[in-house]
Amino acid sequence: MSTASAVPALALAGLVKRFGGTVAVDGVDLVVPTGSFYGLVGPNGAGKTTTLSMATGLLRPDAGSAAVHGVDVWTDPVAAKRMVGNLADGVRLFDRLTGEQLITYTGLMFGLPREQVLERTADLLRLMDLGSSAGTPVADYSAGMTKKVALACALVHAPRLLVLDEPFESVDPVSAANIEDVLRSYTASGGTVIVSSHSMDLVQRMCDHVAILAAGRVLVAGTVDEVRAGSTLQERFLELVGGRTRSEGPTWLRQS
Ligand SMILES: Nc1ncnc2c1ncn2[C@@H]1O[C@H](COP(=O)(O)OP(=O)(O)OP(=O)(O)O)[C@@H](O)[C@H]1O
Fold first, then answer.
1. Does 44 contact ligand 1 (Cβ within 6 A)?
2. Is the distance from the beta carbon of residue 47 to the nearest atom of ligand 1 less than 6 Å?
3. Its pTM surpasses 0.90
């Protein structure tokens, strides 16, 4: 292995975050190898979004560190953020801008030359199938269109690491397949993706590595084959996380 690829794309060590009495993230260590397609899965409230927010410099950890390609996110945030494309969950966009303006603005913010930004914006609008809505304010976009324009903004500066919080939520199957193709060729060319998702099928299909997070801790992490250990990721997830009730629901809900 070369020295360059020995430095992980993302290294999280001892990350902790509390909100009042809630420990949202309780000592997360994670190493995302360069060139990997890394899935982060876990039940609702497991701490995925909080972990990814700390990893990308959006939320200051109470303890621990995050480094992107060896650059500390909290002591050298400008250098670290330059390498990251981030699709964050629940972050407000400048939605009075049109989709085209928003992608262009993001590219210019990263200091790209105007000509290059215009070319990339056109490519991204085509890729996301947003061409006919390019001139519409993002405030008037559907949930899936908003997700796609945010993803385009995360890609415009061709970052070395993509951190995507539920990128396929609300996205239609054709767009999802097109985005999947692009992400695959991105990792094949040396880029790294970490993606949080509730779709075990998607993670099993797309990712080479996966971590299962529950109650703010990593239960298991490794290659997808190591983690699923001969069964499906869905089965392993249910086994490790528990919580299946197998109930028929409350009697008042039954119709006969
Ligand atoms: N800003 C906040 N203030 C207070 N509590 C918060 C805040 N953000 C997250 N939490 C709490 O931290 C815990 C982890 O939340 P987080 O959003 O990271 O989970 P998640 O794994 O992304 O969940 P989901 O799959 O439902 O999106 C939850 O108990 C949540 O209620």
1. yes
2. yes
3. yes
Interface ipTM above 0.95: yes
7-40 burial, b at 16+ Cβ within 10 Å, e below that, comes to ebbbbbeebbbeeeeebbbbebebebbbbbbbbb
Smallest CA-to-CA distance from 195 within 42, 92, 74 is with 42
For ligand 1, mutation pick of 12, 17, 18, 22 (most atoms within 8 Å of CB): 22
pLDDT digits (tens, 9 = 90+) for 143-181: 899 999 999 999 999 999 999 999 888 889 988 888 888
Q: For residue 139, give both structure tokens.
A: 């405030």
Q: Which CATH class is domain 3-83+159-253?
A: alpha beta
219-232 pLDDT, tens digit per residue, is 999 999 999 999 99
How far does residue 47's CA lie from ligand 1's centre (Å)? 6
- Where do the structural domains in the chain lie, given as residue ranges? 3-83+159-253
Instruction: Kindly state the tokens that stand for 87.
Output: 């699709």
Compute φ and ψ for 251, nearest 5 degrees. -60, -35
